[in-house]
Protein backbone atom coordinates (compact mmCIF):
# COMPACT_ATOMS: atom_id res chain seq x y z
CA UNK A 1 0.00 0.00 0.00
CA UNK A 2 1.35 3.39 -0.89
CA UNK A 3 0.26 6.12 1.44
CA UNK A 4 -0.67 9.55 0.24
CA UNK A 5 -0.02 12.76 2.07
CA UNK A 6 -3.76 13.16 2.58
CA UNK A 7 -3.97 9.83 4.45
CA UNK A 8 -1.13 10.94 6.68
CA UNK A 9 -2.67 14.31 7.38
CA UNK A 10 -6.13 13.05 8.22
CA UNK A 11 -5.81 9.77 10.09
CA UNK A 12 -4.10 9.81 13.47
CA UNK A 13 -3.47 6.30 14.75
CA UNK A 14 -1.69 7.21 17.96
CA UNK A 15 -2.31 10.41 19.90
CA UNK A 16 -0.22 10.93 23.01
CA UNK A 17 -0.81 14.20 24.79
CA UNK A 18 0.89 15.68 27.83
CA UNK A 19 2.53 12.38 28.78
CA UNK A 20 4.59 12.74 31.94
CA UNK A 21 6.27 9.95 33.87
CA UNK A 22 7.86 10.55 37.24
CA UNK A 23 9.84 8.05 39.28
CA UNK A 24 9.95 9.63 42.73
CA UNK A 25 11.95 12.82 42.26
CA UNK A 26 13.04 11.96 38.72
CA UNK A 27 10.93 13.15 35.80
CA UNK A 28 11.81 10.72 33.02
CA UNK A 29 9.21 12.05 30.56
CA UNK A 30 7.86 15.58 30.72
CA UNK A 31 4.66 16.67 29.03
CA UNK A 32 5.32 14.95 25.71
CA UNK A 33 2.83 15.20 22.83
CA UNK A 34 3.28 12.89 19.86
CA UNK A 35 1.01 11.70 17.08
CA UNK A 36 1.57 8.92 14.59
CA UNK A 37 -0.66 8.99 11.55
CA UNK A 38 -1.81 6.14 9.33
CA UNK A 39 0.87 5.16 6.85
CA UNK A 40 3.66 6.94 8.72
CA UNK A 41 6.99 5.81 10.07
CA UNK A 42 7.93 8.12 12.94
CA UNK A 43 11.31 8.08 14.64
CA UNK A 44 12.02 8.83 18.29
CA UNK A 45 15.60 9.81 18.98
CA UNK A 46 17.52 11.27 21.89
CA UNK A 47 20.66 10.65 23.92
CA UNK A 48 20.86 7.78 26.40
CA UNK A 49 18.53 8.32 29.32
CA UNK A 50 16.39 10.84 27.41
CA UNK A 51 13.20 8.95 28.28
CA UNK A 52 12.48 7.18 24.98
CA UNK A 53 11.85 3.69 26.39
CA UNK A 54 9.94 5.13 29.33
CA UNK A 55 7.69 6.92 26.83
CA UNK A 56 7.15 3.61 24.96
CA UNK A 57 6.30 1.97 28.28
CA UNK A 58 3.70 4.68 28.91
CA UNK A 59 2.20 4.07 25.46
CA UNK A 60 1.97 0.32 25.91
CA UNK A 61 0.54 0.14 29.43
CA UNK A 62 3.71 -1.08 31.15
CA UNK A 63 3.73 2.21 33.05
CA UNK A 64 0.77 4.27 34.08
CA UNK A 65 1.80 7.82 33.15
CA UNK A 66 1.81 10.28 36.01
CA UNK A 67 -0.06 12.63 33.71
CA UNK A 68 -1.31 12.63 30.15
CA UNK A 69 -3.43 10.62 27.79
CA UNK A 70 -2.70 8.02 25.15
CA UNK A 71 -5.29 7.18 22.48
CA UNK A 72 -5.27 4.66 19.68
CA UNK A 73 -7.61 5.39 16.77
CA UNK A 74 -9.57 7.80 18.93
CA UNK A 75 -10.01 5.54 21.96
CA UNK A 76 -8.07 6.06 25.19
CA UNK A 77 -5.81 3.06 25.82
CA UNK A 78 -6.09 1.23 29.13
CA UNK A 79 -2.86 0.97 31.11
CA UNK A 80 -2.67 -2.81 30.78
CA UNK A 81 -0.22 -4.27 28.26
CA UNK A 82 -2.44 -7.14 27.07
CA UNK A 83 -5.38 -4.77 26.54
CA UNK A 84 -3.14 -2.38 24.60
CA UNK A 85 -2.05 -5.31 22.39
CA UNK A 86 -5.67 -6.36 21.90
CA UNK A 87 -6.55 -2.78 20.95
CA UNK A 88 -4.01 -2.95 18.11
CA UNK A 89 -0.66 -1.70 19.42
CA UNK A 90 2.26 -4.15 19.41
CA UNK A 91 5.88 -3.63 20.36
CA UNK A 92 9.33 -5.11 20.46
CA UNK A 93 11.84 -4.54 23.22
CA UNK A 94 15.35 -3.13 23.34
CA UNK A 95 16.64 -6.44 24.71
CA UNK A 96 15.35 -9.42 22.75
CA UNK A 97 12.59 -11.27 24.52
CA UNK A 98 12.05 -14.48 22.63
CA UNK A 99 11.21 -17.84 24.13
CA UNK A 100 14.64 -19.38 23.66
CA UNK A 101 13.61 -23.03 23.91
CA UNK A 102 10.54 -22.75 21.72
CA UNK A 103 10.66 -23.04 17.96
CA UNK A 104 10.55 -20.09 15.63
CA UNK A 105 6.96 -20.99 14.67
CA UNK A 106 5.87 -21.39 18.30
CA UNK A 107 7.25 -17.95 19.13
CA UNK A 108 5.04 -16.42 16.46
CA UNK A 109 2.05 -18.48 17.61
CA UNK A 110 2.50 -17.06 21.12
CA UNK A 111 2.11 -13.59 19.64
CA UNK A 112 -1.12 -14.73 18.04
CA UNK A 113 -2.90 -15.56 21.29
CA UNK A 114 -4.63 -12.17 21.63
CA UNK A 115 -6.42 -12.88 18.34
CA UNK A 116 -7.55 -16.40 19.28
CA UNK A 117 -11.05 -16.50 20.68
CA UNK A 118 -11.17 -20.17 21.69
CA UNK A 119 -11.33 -20.66 25.46
CA UNK A 120 -9.96 -23.25 27.85
CA UNK A 121 -12.72 -25.82 27.38
CA UNK A 122 -12.54 -25.58 23.64
CA UNK A 123 -8.78 -26.14 23.85
CA UNK A 124 -9.12 -29.11 26.21
CA UNK A 125 -11.85 -30.76 24.14
CA UNK A 126 -10.13 -29.89 20.86
CA UNK A 127 -13.48 -29.43 19.16
CA UNK A 128 -13.92 -28.38 15.53
CA UNK A 129 -13.92 -24.67 16.42
CA UNK A 130 -10.61 -25.02 18.19
CA UNK A 131 -9.07 -26.99 15.33
CA UNK A 132 -10.20 -24.37 12.80
CA UNK A 133 -8.75 -21.57 14.93
CA UNK A 134 -5.52 -23.51 15.39
CA UNK A 135 -5.16 -24.07 11.64
CA UNK A 136 -5.85 -20.38 10.92
CA UNK A 137 -3.24 -19.31 13.49
CA UNK A 138 -0.73 -21.70 12.02
CA UNK A 139 -1.39 -20.37 8.53
CA UNK A 140 -1.03 -16.74 9.64
CA UNK A 141 2.17 -17.53 11.56
CA UNK A 142 3.69 -19.20 8.49
CA UNK A 143 2.63 -16.21 6.37
CA UNK A 144 4.50 -13.93 8.75
CA UNK A 145 7.57 -16.15 8.72
CA UNK A 146 7.53 -16.02 4.94
CA UNK A 147 7.19 -12.24 5.14
CA UNK A 148 10.34 -11.94 7.25
CA UNK A 149 12.15 -14.67 5.29
CA UNK A 150 12.32 -17.28 8.06
CA UNK A 151 9.76 -19.84 6.89
CA UNK A 152 12.55 -22.36 6.25
CA UNK A 153 13.54 -22.12 9.91
CA UNK A 154 10.07 -22.58 11.39
CA UNK A 155 11.14 -25.69 13.31
CA UNK A 156 14.44 -24.33 14.58
CA UNK A 157 14.80 -23.35 18.22
CA UNK A 158 14.76 -19.57 18.59
CA UNK A 159 17.99 -19.61 20.53
CA UNK A 160 19.83 -21.12 17.58
CA UNK A 161 19.04 -18.24 15.22
CA UNK A 162 21.70 -15.66 14.42
CA UNK A 163 21.18 -12.37 16.18
CA UNK A 164 19.71 -10.48 13.20
CA UNK A 165 17.15 -13.23 12.64
CA UNK A 166 16.16 -13.18 16.30
CA UNK A 167 15.37 -9.49 15.94
CA UNK A 168 13.27 -10.21 12.83
CA UNK A 169 11.48 -13.00 14.66
CA UNK A 170 10.58 -10.57 17.44
CA UNK A 171 9.00 -8.32 14.83
CA UNK A 172 7.05 -11.24 13.34
CA UNK A 173 5.79 -12.17 16.79
CA UNK A 174 4.63 -8.60 17.39
CA UNK A 175 2.91 -8.59 13.99
CA UNK A 176 1.08 -11.80 14.86
CA UNK A 177 -1.32 -9.76 16.97
CA UNK A 178 -2.43 -7.94 13.77
CA UNK A 179 -1.50 -4.47 15.03
CA UNK A 180 -2.36 -1.17 13.42
CA UNK A 181 0.65 0.41 15.15
CA UNK A 182 4.01 -1.21 15.77
CA UNK A 183 6.50 0.22 18.26
CA UNK A 184 10.09 -0.85 17.70
CA UNK A 185 12.65 -0.19 20.43
CA UNK A 186 16.13 -0.10 18.86
CA UNK A 187 15.43 -2.74 16.20
CA UNK A 188 18.96 -2.55 14.76
CA UNK A 189 20.96 -2.49 17.99
CA UNK A 190 23.85 -4.92 17.58
CA UNK A 191 23.19 -5.53 13.88
CA UNK A 192 25.85 -5.40 11.20
CA UNK A 193 25.38 -2.97 8.26
CA UNK A 194 23.77 -5.59 5.99
CA UNK A 195 21.32 -6.61 8.69
CA UNK A 196 20.54 -2.95 9.34
CA UNK A 197 19.76 -2.38 5.66
CA UNK A 198 17.54 -5.47 5.63
CA UNK A 199 15.76 -4.20 8.74
CA UNK A 200 15.11 -0.91 6.97
CA UNK A 201 13.54 -2.72 4.02
CA UNK A 202 11.47 -4.86 6.37
CA UNK A 203 10.08 -1.79 8.15
CA UNK A 204 9.15 -0.18 4.84
CA UNK A 205 7.36 -3.41 3.90
CA UNK A 206 5.52 -3.39 7.24
CA UNK A 207 4.40 0.19 6.63
CA UNK A 208 3.25 -0.82 3.15
CA UNK A 209 1.01 -3.44 4.79
CA UNK A 210 -0.88 -0.57 6.43
CA UNK A 211 0.83 -0.70 9.83
CA UNK A 212 2.03 2.62 11.23
CA UNK A 213 5.44 2.45 12.90
CA UNK A 214 7.05 4.35 15.77
CA UNK A 215 10.71 3.48 16.10
CA UNK A 216 13.40 4.32 18.66
CA UNK A 217 16.90 4.12 17.29
CA UNK A 218 20.34 5.59 17.87
CA UNK A 219 21.53 4.98 14.32
CA UNK A 220 20.90 8.38 12.74
CA UNK A 221 21.50 7.28 9.17
CA UNK A 222 18.90 4.54 9.62
CA UNK A 223 16.39 6.93 11.22
CA UNK A 224 16.76 9.72 8.70
CA UNK A 225 16.50 7.30 5.75
CA UNK A 226 13.49 5.54 7.16
CA UNK A 227 11.23 8.05 8.82
CA UNK A 228 8.61 10.47 7.53
CA UNK A 229 8.91 12.44 10.76
CA UNK A 230 11.31 12.44 13.70
CA UNK A 231 10.92 13.66 17.28
CA UNK A 232 13.91 14.24 19.54
CA UNK A 233 13.67 13.85 23.32
CA UNK A 234 16.24 15.37 25.62
CA UNK A 235 16.02 14.90 29.37
CA UNK A 236 12.41 13.79 29.08
CA UNK A 237 11.23 16.75 27.02
CA UNK A 238 10.46 16.88 23.33
CA UNK A 239 13.05 19.22 21.94
CA UNK A 240 12.04 19.24 18.29
CA UNK A 241 9.82 17.36 15.87
CA UNK A 242 9.75 17.51 12.09
CA UNK A 243 10.93 15.98 8.88
CA UNK A 244 14.32 14.27 8.90
CA UNK A 245 15.75 17.29 7.07
CA UNK A 246 14.48 19.70 9.71
CA UNK A 247 15.57 17.57 12.66
CA UNK A 248 19.05 16.73 11.44
CA UNK A 249 19.68 20.39 10.66
CA UNK A 250 18.46 21.61 14.05
CA UNK A 251 21.38 22.94 16.06
CA UNK A 252 19.70 21.95 19.33
CA UNK A 253 19.60 18.30 18.22
CA UNK A 254 23.22 18.44 17.14
CA UNK A 255 24.10 20.01 20.48
CA UNK A 256 22.15 17.39 22.43
CA UNK A 257 24.01 14.62 20.65
CA UNK A 258 27.43 16.20 20.71
CA UNK A 259 27.06 17.35 24.28
CA UNK A 260 27.36 21.08 23.71
CA UNK A 261 24.60 22.78 25.66
CA UNK A 262 22.70 25.57 24.00
CA UNK A 263 20.91 28.41 25.69
CA UNK A 264 17.55 27.30 27.05
CA UNK A 265 18.17 23.54 26.66
CA UNK A 266 16.95 21.34 29.50
CA UNK A 267 19.90 21.05 31.85
CA UNK A 268 21.98 23.72 30.11
CA UNK A 269 21.84 26.00 33.11
CA UNK A 270 23.18 23.30 35.42
CA UNK A 271 25.97 22.45 32.99
CA UNK A 272 26.92 26.13 32.75
CA UNK A 273 27.01 26.38 36.56
CA UNK A 274 29.29 23.34 36.85
CA UNK A 275 31.59 24.67 34.16
CA UNK A 276 31.73 28.07 35.81
CA UNK A 277 32.54 26.48 39.18
CA UNK A 278 35.25 24.36 37.62
CA UNK A 279 36.77 27.33 35.83
CA UNK A 280 36.64 29.35 39.06
CA UNK A 281 38.39 26.67 41.11
CA UNK A 282 40.94 26.08 38.34
CA UNK A 283 40.06 22.42 38.68
CA UNK A 284 40.61 21.62 35.05
CA UNK A 285 37.87 19.01 35.09
CA UNK A 286 36.39 17.79 31.87
CA UNK A 287 33.69 19.98 30.42
CA UNK A 288 30.68 18.76 28.47
CA UNK A 289 32.46 19.62 25.25
CA UNK A 290 35.42 17.48 26.30
CA UNK A 291 33.32 14.37 26.11
CA UNK A 292 31.47 14.39 22.83
CA UNK A 293 28.92 11.76 22.07
CA UNK A 294 29.83 9.56 25.00
CA UNK A 295 26.19 9.12 25.76
CA UNK A 296 24.85 9.87 22.34
CA UNK A 297 26.11 7.58 19.66
CA UNK A 298 25.66 8.74 16.12
CA UNK A 299 26.73 5.65 14.27
CA UNK A 300 25.25 2.20 14.17
CA UNK A 301 28.25 0.61 15.84
CA UNK A 302 28.32 3.17 18.63
CA UNK A 303 24.63 2.71 19.17
CA UNK A 304 25.02 -1.02 19.43
CA UNK A 305 27.75 -0.66 21.98
CA UNK A 306 25.95 1.92 24.02
CA UNK A 307 22.50 0.48 23.88
CA UNK A 308 22.89 -3.17 23.25
CA UNK A 309 25.89 -4.67 24.91
CA UNK A 310 25.01 -4.58 28.56
CA UNK A 311 21.74 -6.28 27.85
CA UNK A 312 22.49 -8.25 24.80
CA UNK A 313 26.09 -9.22 24.56
CA UNK A 314 26.33 -12.31 26.57
CA UNK A 315 24.28 -15.29 25.74
CA UNK A 316 23.02 -15.30 22.20
CA UNK A 317 24.63 -17.30 19.46
CA UNK A 318 27.65 -15.62 18.01
CA UNK A 319 28.15 -13.65 21.20
CA UNK A 320 25.67 -10.92 20.35
CA UNK A 321 22.32 -10.31 21.89
CA UNK A 322 20.26 -12.27 24.30
CA UNK A 323 17.65 -14.72 23.55
CA UNK A 324 15.30 -13.95 26.20
CA UNK A 325 14.50 -14.57 29.66
CA UNK A 326 12.20 -17.51 29.10
CA UNK A 327 8.68 -16.81 30.18
CA UNK A 328 8.62 -13.15 29.31
CA UNK A 329 5.90 -12.08 27.04
CA UNK A 330 4.80 -8.83 25.61
N1 LIG B 1 11.54 2.02 36.42
C1 LIG B 1 12.31 3.06 36.59
N2 LIG B 1 12.53 3.55 37.83
C2 LIG B 1 13.31 4.64 38.02
N3 LIG B 1 13.91 5.32 37.03
C3 LIG B 1 13.73 4.88 35.79
C4 LIG B 1 12.93 3.73 35.49
N4 LIG B 1 12.93 3.54 34.16
C5 LIG B 1 13.69 4.51 33.63
N5 LIG B 1 14.17 5.31 34.61
C6 LIG B 1 15.01 6.50 34.42
O1 LIG B 1 14.36 7.33 33.50
C7 LIG B 1 15.30 7.98 32.66
C8 LIG B 1 14.97 7.69 31.22
O2 LIG B 1 15.29 6.33 30.94
P1 LIG B 1 14.93 5.62 29.57
O3 LIG B 1 15.39 4.20 29.66
O4 LIG B 1 13.52 5.86 29.26
O5 LIG B 1 15.85 6.43 28.55
P2 LIG B 1 16.15 6.09 27.04
O6 LIG B 1 16.06 7.38 26.31
O7 LIG B 1 15.31 4.97 26.57
O8 LIG B 1 17.68 5.64 27.12
P3 LIG B 1 18.50 4.61 26.20
O9 LIG B 1 18.70 5.27 24.89
O10 LIG B 1 19.78 4.46 26.95
O11 LIG B 1 17.72 3.33 26.13
C9 LIG B 1 16.68 7.48 33.08
O12 LIG B 1 17.22 8.43 33.97
C10 LIG B 1 16.36 6.18 33.79
O13 LIG B 1 17.35 5.88 34.75
TrEMBL record:
Residue ranges occupied by any ABC transporter domain in the UniProt entry: 14-260
Keywords, alphabetical: ATP-binding, Nucleotide-binding, Transport
Name of the protein in question: ABC transporter ATP-binding protein
Pfam family, one: ABC_tran
Family matches, as InterPro entries: AAA+_ATPase (IPR003593), ABC_AA/LPS_Transport (IPR051120), ABC_transporter-like_ATP-bd (IPR003439), BCA_ABC_TP_C (IPR032823), P-loop_NTPase (IPR027417)
Spans annotated as Disordered: 273-330
GO molecular function: ATP binding
Segments of skewed composition (Low complexity): 292-310
Species whose genome carries this gene: Streptomyces albipurpureus
UniProt-listed PANTHER family: AMINO ACID ABC TRANSPORTER ATP-BINDING PROTEIN, CONSERVED COMPONENT OF ABC TRANSPORTER FOR NATURAL AMINO ACIDS-RELATED
Signal peptide extent: none
Amino acid sequence: MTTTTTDIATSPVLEASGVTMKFGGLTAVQNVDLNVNAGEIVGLIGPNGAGKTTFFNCLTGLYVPTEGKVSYKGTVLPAKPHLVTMAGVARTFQNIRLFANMTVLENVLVGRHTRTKEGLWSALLRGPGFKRAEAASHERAMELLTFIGLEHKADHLARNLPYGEQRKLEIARAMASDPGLLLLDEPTAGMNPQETRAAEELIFAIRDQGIAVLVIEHDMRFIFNLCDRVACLVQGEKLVEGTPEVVQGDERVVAAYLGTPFEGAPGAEEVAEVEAAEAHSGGGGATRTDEPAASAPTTRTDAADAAGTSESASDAPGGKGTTSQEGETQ
